[in-house]
Amino acid sequence: MNERDLVKDVILEVFNKCGYTDAVQMVQRDFDFISSEIEKKSGILVSGTTIKRLSLGDFSRLPQVATLNAIASYFDHKTWQDLKISRSALIQPEIEIPAPITRERGSRFFRNKPVYFTAAILVIIVIFGFYLFRSRPGSISNVEKAAFSCQRSTRNDMPNTVIFNYDVDHVNADSFFIQQSWDKNRRKRIYKHTHTLTDIYYEPGYHIAKLIANDSIIKTIDVHIPTDRWFFYAIDNVANYIPEYIHTDKYVNNGILGLSAQQVKENNIDITKDKLYQYAYFPSDMTVRSNNFRLKTKIRMNEVRNSLCPYITIELFCQGYFIVMKTTNKGCANQAYLLLNQEIKGNETDLTAVTFDVNQWTDVEIASTNNMVHIYINNKEVFSGPCFEPVKYISGFAFISNGLCEVDNVALTGLDGKIVYNNEF
Fold it and tell me: Are 247 and 197 within one domain?
């Protein structure tokens, strides 16, 4: 195995650790998920496209050092060289067999001493490569001199303007960006000798903004945008969306939290289009941890357009990651989905147990004890599995559906009794 083969094998090993056993079946979203997992460990952004290319062995020369170091960090090595040393027994040097010595006429030195000639050429190549490597485009230095901070313009209004203050004057890199959160489409270019960027957040939640040099994250800051109330909006069920806010003062009727199709239309939202409707709640204070909590609710949905597979997603937002349960009717179980310590997809795993008739009232409970998540439907445990190991605070939660949810009650508490939200409406 040479070093190029090692890069490909290590990438495939990352896939296996994240639950992907067949790279051929992976789609771009899967590669982007691997990108985010490597970024969490290393702080370095390696695009999903690059990861796909490396997994296929589609590269003629080794990737940049920053990319290799990011991959090595996933396996708890400081650098790619450290990882190579740990696996040195697997790497076989590529030995070039010298051409046979001939007795052709020519210089006595080159005819009789081919070893010295070959060594001289190798020394020249190494020296040239060293200086080429040092001066190659894309190198980054002086990242410790960067500064990054922010402040919100309003407390909990939406949309919310956030003012970023930064200083990259002394950082050596080809380009700089600020990215709002995980979404790479929310990336704005910045320049040296400018120090302020004003940006808009259209959705509430706990975001992690990133200061990026070239393709590497050099600093991050938390941007917490709470609502302290229920906040409703719709989005087109496609990428690169902009929320459409649903403004109403009457979202509790007869002890049920929910919206009607008429209320949605009154906000000039076309209910005939494929949309996701989100009911979100983000408190200012975060008191409950992601490894010990209990969410109990009673839900159903009303369809606003004909859908073969109606679904409801319950999403818990934590500092830096999500806990997700997407449920649907049993006949559409291949579209069910869980996000705990990894993605669990209904088309790869039998998730029939976490599905039910989403048009009927159903009791759902998601509880975590010491990073083990248990899911109950109508008081019956239907799933259990490990969750993310890093302990974070829960920053909020949401009900998301391709119809309009109705919520009879909801309580999110810590196992120690701390309350995030508790309401029977």
Answer: no
Q: Is the dihedral of CA 92, 96, 100, 106 positive or negative?
A: negative
- In the chain the first and final C-alpha atoms are separated, in Å, by 64
Whether residue 82 sits in one domain with residue 209: no
Q: Residue 57: CB partners within 8 Å, gap ≥ 6?
A: 4, 5, 8
Q: Is residue 119 part of a domain?
A: no
Residue 213 sits in a domain whose CATH number is 2.60.40.1930
Is residue 121 domain-resident?
no
Which residues on neighbouring strands pair with residue 127, listed in sequence order?
none
Q: Contact, 31 vs 15, CB < 8 A?
A: no
Is residue 261 a contact partner of residue 404, using CB atoms and an 8 Å limit?
yes
pLDDT in tens, the chain (425 residues): 688 888 888 889 888 888 787 777 788 778 888 888 888 888 788 888 888 888 888 777 788 888 888 898 888 888 888 888 888 765 555 444 444 444 444 444 334 455 555 555 665 665 555 544 444 445 789 999 999 999 988 777 889 999 999 999 999 999 999 999 887 778 999 999 999 999 999 999 999 999 999 888 999 999 999 998 999 999 987 655 689 999 999 999 999 999 999 999 999 999 998 899 999 999 999 999 999 999 999 999 998 888 899 999 999 999 888 999 999 999 999 999 999 988 899 999 999 999 999 999 999 999 999 889 999 999 999 999 998 888 899 999 999 999 999 999 999 999 988 999 999 99
Expressed as residue numbers, the domain containing 176 is 143-225
Query: In whole angstroms, what is the distance from residue 71 CA to residue 15 CA?
Result: 12
CA distance to 201, 234, 236, per residue, from 242 (Å): 10, 9, 8
Same domain, 299 and 333: yes
Cis peptide before 159 (omega within 30 of 0): yes
Q: How many domains does the chain have?
A: 3
How many CA atoms are closer than 13 Å to the CA of 342, on its beta-carbon side? 15
Using CA atoms, how far residue 191 sits from 163, 199, 217, 424, in Å, is: 16, 15, 16, 51
Considering the domain architecture, whether residues 265 and 413 belong to the same structural domain is answered as yes
